[in-house]
From TrEMBL:
A Pfam family recorded for this sequence: GDPD
Domain of life: Bacteria
Protein name as it appears in the record: Glycerophosphodiester phosphodiesterase
GO molecular function, one term: phosphoric diester hydrolase activity
GP-PDE domain mapped to chain residues: 8-277
Gene Ontology BP terms: lipid metabolic process
Alphabetical list of SUPFAM superfamilies matching this protein: PLC-like phosphodiesterases (SSF51695)
Extent of the signal sequence: none
Organism field: Hymenobacter lutimineralis
């Protein structure tokens, strides 16, 4: 048993992608049942301006089927553009019956891409029914400059749509906004100065350069876990920035990171590391 006072908060990546289809209600429900305290999820925007929970702004051929139940060819997946589809059209696709090839233990269950509001309302009801504290949310806005206008709206519109949903559900205080696109975070910092934000990083550019480009001190720094080093941790501690690396799935990596005392760990297998805390 590890010391719970220094044990990081476990963030369920896309719910619990290693166990249930990613970014679906079954995955989020199972994560809550396991005892996950933070749900990490991704959002994109539909043609009718709905905030949809999805990692890609298209139907990924590896996991999604057409409304007719047919597989989607890899070279045709971009044609199933969520930003060009209304939400009723999006909901007709099945993104749960085809097991993700990288996760052989994943349960295959029919599942659609839910709305952000549906996920929050559903897991809050479940938490209350289980007598658990309400979970927190790490919401990644899937924004990148190259996709603007084709796969996503401009940053201000994207952010406004997401924040409007969070405000309507009164969960801003339980939410951290995540993004690789610094423009989104800069807008959030300007418009909602008290909002918790996380800068996601996956390249080897020095962290000092990333923070300088961002232009302010974020609440959280979220690097791909191999990028975590003593130098990074020392600098983040001096700045008062929390460390939440992603996506940590194996025990050796998990135990290496524990030595750095991260605030959280994002994982596809929350069951593995929640057990270690008891």
């Amino acid at each position: 048993m590890l010391n719970s006072s220094v044990f990081p908060v476990i963030h369920g990546h896309r719910g619990c992608r290693g166990l249930y289809p990613e970014n679906t209600l079954p995955a989020f429900r199972h994560a809550v049942t396991l005892g996950v305290e933070v749900l990490e999820l991704d959002v994109v925007i539909s043609a009718d301006s709905q905030v949809v929970v999805s990692h890609e702004p298209w139907m990924l051929s590896a996991i999604c089927r057409t409304p007719a139940g047919q597989p989607i060819a890899p070279d045709e997946q971009l044609q199933h553009n969520l930003y060009a589809l209304s939400y009723p059209e999006i909901r007709r696709y099945d993104c749960g019956s085809t097991r993700h090839p990288a996760f052989p233990a994943q349960q295959s269950v029919p599942a659609y891409k839910p709305l952000l509001r549906e996920v929050i309302q559903d897991v809050d009801r479940l938490s209350l029914a289980l007598g658990r504290p309400l979970v927190r949310f790490s919401v990644e806005l899937k924004s990148e400059p190259a996709g603007e206008g084709h796969f996503q709206p401009p940053p201000r519109q994207f952010l406004d749509l997401v924040v409007r949903e969070l405000q309507a559900l009164q969960v801003l205080a339980r939410t951290t906004l995540l993004c690789f696109d610094k423009r989104i975070l800069q807008l959030a910092h300007q418009l909602l100065p008290g909002m918790a934000v996380c800068l996601l990083v996956e390249d080897k550019q020095p962290h000092a350069d990333h923070l300088q480009e961002l232009g302010f001190v974020p609440t959280v720094y979220g690097p791909n876990f191999p990028l975590v080093s003593s130098e990074l941790v020392t600098d983040l501690n001096e700045l008062g920035i929390q460390l939440v690396p992603w996506t940590v799935n194996e025990y050796p990596d998990f135990h290496r990171l524990l030595a750095f005392h991260p605030a959280g760990i994002t994982t596809d297998y929350p069951d593995r590391f929640l057990l270690a805390s008891h």
